[in-house]
Design goal:
It catalyses: L-glutamine + H2O = L-glutamate + NH4(+); N(2)-formyl-N(1)-(5-phospho-beta-D-ribosyl)glycinamide + L-glutamine + ATP + H2O = 2-formamido-N(1)-(5-O-phospho-beta-D-ribosyl)acetamidine + L-glutamate + ADP + phosphate + H(+). By secondary structure, the protein is of the alpha/beta class. It contains five helices and eleven strands; from the N terminus they run βαββαβαββββαβββα.
């Protein structure tokens, strides 16, 4: 499988994603935001950062980058697409996943390790995760997930919630919610379950040199796409 990591002006986690994918033994290329060619990539990643300086609204400008025409077409064909942090915000702005990401409830940028518990029983990213909690870094100022009541019901009914914030035992509590996200939601997928968005950074917890490989356990799940 060939991976493509999109680079917007202001992206700052693109190399982290590339390094992690290469550590996993995968072929990966960077895709510039002005390109109109996905270079035959099977799995596209929109990385974290501050695309276009996060002016106007996070992800709002990047959603209209030239390459997004190809990214959206790829997703609509059933191709795999993942947005991490700012990439998740871009997915939401492009209406590729339900909901929106709002300013953190405490109105502050939050950067720390948190815990995630897998939720969807059949999404590629979570179906085979068997631990109650995974320690993953987060770093964002606008990560508070929100959706209206009908959308939230559909997400829960269809198994589209990927992760919820939890404590180290896997308990989903208000105290474990770092940004005020509705129902502790930390990641969602589209109805077709080929587009994944999450606010925490698994690529920052994938190298043993960093002392935490919980993120690698999550990212390893995407390699199952080769077998689909």
């Amino acid at each position: 499988m060939k991976f493509g990591v999109v680079v917007f002006p202001g992206s700052n986690c693109d190399q982290d994603a590339v390094d992690t994918l290469e550590l996993m033994g995968q072929e990966v290329v960077k895709l510039w935001h002005k390109d109109h060619d996905l270079q035959g990539c099977d799995f596209i990643i929109l990385p974290g950062g501050f695309s276009y300086g996060d002016y106007l609204r996070t992800g709002a400008v990047a959603r209209f980058s030239p390459i997004m025409n190809e990214v959206i077409a790829h997703a609509n064909r059933g191709g795999y697409l993942m947005g991490i942090c700012n990439g998740f915000q871009v997915l939401a702005e492009a209406r590729l996943v339900p909901g929106v990401l709002l300013r953190n409830a405490n109105q502050q940028y939050v950067c720390k390790n948190i815990y995630l518990t897998p939720q969807s029983p059949d999404a590629l990213l979570t179906a085979d995760l068997d631990r109650a909690a995974y320690k993953i870094p987060m770093a964002h100022g606008e990560g508070r997930y929100f959706a209206d009541a009908d959308t939230l019901k559909a997400l829960n009914d269809n198994g589209q919630v990927l992760f919820r914030y939890c404590d180290e035992t896997g308990a989903i509590t208000e105290a474990a919610n770092p940004n005020g996200s509705l129902e502790n939601i930390a990641g969602v997928t589209n109805k077709g379950k080929n587009v994944f968005g999450m606010m925490p950074h698994p690529e920052r917890a994938a190298d043993p040199a960093l002392g935490n490989t919980d993120g690698r356990l999550i990212l390893d799940q995407i390699l199952k796409a080769v077998l689909v």
